Amino acid sequence: MKETVDIKENTLLGIGAELLEILLKDRTTGGNILWATEHYETLGLLYRRERQILPSLITGANGEVIKPRTKKTKQEQQARIRGKAEVFTPSWVCNCQNNLVDDAWLGYKGAFNTEGNKSWTATAEPVRFPEGKTWQNYVEENRLEITCGEAPYLVSRYDAVTGKEIPLKERIGLLDRKLRVVGENAADKEEWIRWAKKAFQSVYGYEWQGDDLLLARENLLYTFIDYYEEKFGEAPAKSLLLEIAEIISWNIWQMDGLKCVVPNSCKSDTSVQPSMFEKRPKGKICEGCAKGLLFAHNGIYCRIMNWKTGKTERFVDLLRGKKV
Question: What's the total number of domains in the chain?
Fold first, then answer.
């Protein structure tokens, strides 16, 4: 099931239509994720930013519509930088920052790799865990990549800037590290699968633009496939992929990161005509947008899954009492 940097939606469709359907699902609204970008509108009305991404729009003859950043033209890349400040981080920078997180958690440096000049060398020895912490604690520790794009901090199948593929043993994403730890410690296949699922349940990320979000979800799914095939020498069952895809569809979600709502879901009703004594239309204004109040938006607040309780929570509620 080897796939290149540019994962083909037709390939996913070939594995099973329900797999692609899950990866396109918006768990908050119950519909599909939105395009949320104008860069596909020349393809027709169904590609407008407010429309949902449907499987038929990106498969079959349309199978080359969604491409990772490195496969887009320079003009497309520049337009997205101007429009949404879309900037991708090279893998060596992601590695340096991820190392800072692990150095602090583990209490020593070089657990996963040794940094070089815009490069790194993977540590051959298994990761050591300090007294009072276990490999299971590490796998279950929650991690979040904000405005995740194609999720280079979580998984590193390729360098998001150069497009160069990264060998499995050299990968540096936060989820890559968890899966490495699972591989070094799980006693058998059953335990590996159980803790690999926990690893996926522990990493989160949100993104505005629908195409980047789908790419991030695909990258996480194929990261699972890569590690599974490396460990067991066979492709994972379709039923297992569907389970992993469901976790991904909850944990990697579409959101306006400044408002914690579904992009462009805040509404201001200005349909009532102003009278001669009013300076502006009388209607319902989004107080959150008008006053910059995080908890007062009338848009659709995004929900994520708390896998420990099995219940969903509004992401915004996790920020109560914190500086935002």
Answer: 1
